[in-house]
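Quality-control log, excerpt.
Job 1 of 2 completed; input and output follow.
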Amino acid sequence: MKAFKILIMILAISVALYEQVSDDRNIYIMVIAIAVFMYGMMQLSAKTPSKNQEKEEQDVD
């Protein structure tokens, strides 16, 4: 599933970059592609632990 999300994110950012350099830019496609990319980044980074997680766990104990 993680590989699928990364592939979708690469595709979305590729579409956004392609739209950026094309002569007839479509702002809606660019916004959607960037939104998909940002959503994918949010999903992937949600599983990354915080730097302060160990300190917060010690404070609770």
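Job 2 of 2 completed; input and output follow.
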Amino acid sequence: MIKSDDTGKLVLRLSLGILVLLHGIMKLSSGVGGISGMLSSHGLPGFFAYAAYLGEVVGPLLVILGFYSRLGALLVVVNMIVAIMLAHTGQLSSLNAQGGWALELQGMFLFGALAIAFMGAGRFSLGGSGGRWN
């Protein structure tokens, strides 16, 4: 178990899924009004904000469980791309006070989800290591 790709995939799935899900839980409790406003300011229908629940609740749950994990990871990827485009485009080339990229968290969520989409869930998952979407 010390040298195991499946264990590494499990650690990545759990860390990404739990951290993104925490953002989704906050949106479940406070709503998506802020996102709706951002969408409206870009000329998009405000009801698209409810799609954030797919990328921050449904996707992370699929990733955590390892059930249709590639699909869940793709939901997170799309969610993060939209979030970066809506709220963070001005920070794309910025550094923070510590010298790191201003979008470290968003980048880690995006690229971690992309890694899961490419690698799949691994053996330690509800879907096992087989299947197109796992």
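Post-run check on job 2. The chain has a mean pLDDT of 92.
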